[in-house]
Amino acid sequence: MNDKDVLTPALGLRHIEARHPARRGAKSAMQAIRVKRSSKGGTERAKTVAGRDLPPLLAGVATALGGTGAVLALTDADFWMRGPLTLFFLLAAPASALAAVLAGLEPLGRTLAALAGAVVVDMLVAQGMLAVHRWSVQGGIIAVSVISLLILLGCATLRPIKA
């Protein structure tokens, strides 16, 4: 074999490629795998799929409502739902961040602890802003958002300490 043969492609098929079953239209192993059907009836299966899809759907709706509340408060929009949506954001953002940190607890305990922690975060932000005489709605929304994001980042980046 000389230097010119190294860079020259082979024009014909190798013997193993020429005999491959796929060249004659045979299915590959991945195409031959069948999907097993459930033995349950269609109604029971539809209920389990709908029940399984509900929590992510509710989380998406809550995120959209909270985000809308934050945007309405930051832009100082004159909309009748600004107050309730902003309060929802002020509770939901820190509560969801704290719920992610408390993943080892049972669901009811995690929910109660996250809501209590959200109230504590909101009160600490309000108390800190009032103490330095810099109270504003936009500043409170931004401070709660930043604290919630820092809690989520800490939860996502730090490894838990094993006892």
Fold and architecture overview:
It comes from Streptomyces doudnae. Keywords: Membrane, Transmembrane, Transmembrane helix. Helices cover 66% and strands 0% of the residues. The chain is an all-alpha fold and 163 residues long. The chain has one domain (40-157). Helix 3 (42-75) crosses helix 6 (137-157), helix 4 packs across helix 5 and helix 5 (107-131) crosses helix 6. The longest helix has 34 residues, at 42-75. The radius of gyration is 29 Å and the shape is elongated. The mean pLDDT is 82.
Mean pLDDT: 82
Query: What is the total domain count?
Result: 1
Helical proportion?
55-70%
Shape: elongated
Distance between the termini: 63 Å
Computed Rg? 29 Å
Q: Which oligomeric form is depicted?
A: single chain
Order of helices and strands: HHHHHH
Q: Beta-strand level of the residues, as a percent range?
A: under 5%
What structural class is derived from the secondary structure elements?
Answer: mainly alpha
Total helix count? 6
Give unreliable regions as ranges. none
The count of DSSP E runs of length 2 or more, i.e. the number of strands, is: 0
Biggest beta sheet summary: none
Task: Write a compact overview of the structure shown.
The protein has 6 helices and no strands.
